[in-house]
Amino acid sequence: MVKAMALLLFPSMLSLLVFSLILHNGVVHCFGEKKLLKLQHFQWKQKWDASTCLSQKSRKEKGATILEMKHRDYCYGGGVKDWNKLLQKRLILDDLRVQSLQARIKNKAFGKTEGVSDTRIPLTSGVELGTLNYIVTVELGGRKMTVIVDTGSDLTWVQCQPCKSCYNQKEPLFNPSASPSYQTVSCNSSTCQSLAFATGNTGICGNNPPTCNYIVSYGDGSYTRGELAHDHLSLGKTPVDNFVFGCGRNNKGLFGGASGLMGLGRSSISLVSQTSDIFGGFFSYCLPSTQAGASGSLVLGGNSSVYKTSSAISYTRMIPNPQLSTFYFLNLTGVSVGGLTLPDSTFGKGAMLIDSGTVITRLPPSIYKALKAEFMKQFSGFPSAPAFSILDTCFNLSAYQEVDVPTIKMQFEGNAEMNVDVTGVFYFVKTDASQVCLALASLSFEDEIGIIANYQQRNQRVIYDTKKAKLGFAHESCSFT
Hints:
Blueprint: H1 2-22, E1 23-24, E2 27-28, E3 34-38, E4 58-61, E5 64-71, H2 72-76, H3 83-109, E6 120-125, E7 134-140, E8 143-150, E9 157-159, E10 183-184, H4 190-193, H5 195-199, E11 204-205, E12 212-217, E13 223-235, E14 238-252, E15 260-263, H6 271-274, H7 276-279, E16 282-286, E17 296-300, E18 314-317, E19 329-337, E20 340-341, E21 351-354, E22 361-363, H8 365-378, E23 384-385, E24 394-396, E25 402-406, E26 408-412, E27 416-419, E28 426-428, E29 435-438, E30 440-442, E31 450-452, E32 460-465, E33 470-475
Parallel strand pairs: 5-6, 8-15, 9-14, 21-31, 22-30
Antiparallel strand pairs: 1-2, 3-25, 4-5, 5-7, 5-17, 6-7, 6-17, 7-8, 7-13, 9-15, 10-13, 11-12, 12-13, 13-14, 16-17, 16-32, 18-33, 19-20, 19-21, 19-26, 23-24, 24-29, 26-27, 28-29, 32-33
Organism: Theobroma cacao (Cacao)
Protein name: Aspartyl protease family protein At5g10770
Family: Belongs to the peptidase A1 family.
C-alpha cells in the first residue's frame, strides 16, 4: 500500500521538483545556456589608486613583450562627482565615436581626405571616459608615458612641452628638449606624406624649420595637433629606435589623465607596422573589467605559450578592403543566444569592424532585432526599465542579488567563435547595479558597418596576426600575473 502511494505521488513530486528548479527568485526561466551574474560584484566601490597606473608593470617572456593593461576609469575616476550622469554621457560619446568611424569609412571608401587649415604590457581600464578607455605604460625618450590603446587609430602621440593648449594629465608633459634622441620629421618626407592615409588629414609644413605638422580628430570632438617626430621608444625591455609619433602641442578632449594614445591600426605609421621586424606584426590583448584592481595584458609578439587561455584559440580571416586597409574587419556568420542560433539572412553579407576603442557593439538592425527578441524571451519575467541613451533593452534588478544570464556567442567565418563573457552582456546604468541594459545596440541602417566593441571583448584573448591576415579568439580571465 505504501509502495503504491509512493508510486502515485512520484510524478507530482517530480513535477514540483522540476518547477522549483525552473523558479528562481520568483522568476520563471526557460532552459538554455546561461551563466550566473552576481550583481554585488558590479556595485561601484569608487576606490581609485592612480599611482598604480602611472608605473604599470611589464616583462619579457619567451620572446614576447608583455605590458600590463588597465581600464582608465579605475585609474583616473577619482574626480568624478556624479557617476550615474557620467554613465549616460559615456554612451553619448561612444555614439559620436561610432558616427565618426562610419564617416571615416565612407570618406576612405570614396578616396576623400581632409586638408589641415590651422611584448606584454599591463593593460588597464579607465572608466571616466567612455571611449578609448584601456591604457598601458611605455617609455618614450627616457620618460614613462601612460597611453590609451586604440586599434581604430594609427598615429601614436603624446602631449608635449611647450604646449599651447593641453588637457590635464597625471604625468609631466613630454619634454622634447630633454631627450637627446628626439628629432622632428621633415615635411617633404615619405613619412609625412603617409599621414593622409593613416589619419585622413594631410600633413602640412611648419615654419623654421619646415617640420611636418599633423592633426587627428576623433568623433567626440577630441583632437590632437602638433609636429611629427621620432624618438627612442621602450616597450617594457624591448627597444624601438627612431619611433615615429606625434608631439602634440594643441590637444583637447576626453583622454582622462592619460599622456596620449597608442595607435594599433594597420597603416605604415602605426606601432604594429613600425615594430613588425621585432614582433612580426603580431599582437594580442586581454581587456579587463572596470572592477578595482582588475588588469589585463597587451602582448607584442606571437608566442601563444605566454597566454593564459582556458579554451582553444579559433581563428578567422581578416577581410581585406584596399580602401579601408587601416581597419580590422571580419565576417560575422552567426549569433546565438542561450545556445539557440538566430535565423537571419544578412549574416555573412557584410564585414564587421573590430575595435578596442568603441564601447558598445553595434549590429545591423535586422540582426539586433532578432537578438533582442530572443534575449527578452529567455530573460523573461524580470521587471523592465526605461531605455538608457542608445540602449533600449533594460531591466530593473533591484530585487535580486544574482541572476542567470543567457549566453551570447558570435560566430565568424572559418568556424571561429567568440563567447561573450558574462561581464560583457549587461551595461550597468546605476552604480548600485540595480538597473542594467543589454550592452548591444542597433545601427541606424542596414548598409552601415557593424562594430565588435570592447565591452563584448572583455576576458577574451583577442589575437591579431597582420602578416597572415587572421584574427583569433579564446577565453581568458584577464590577469597580468
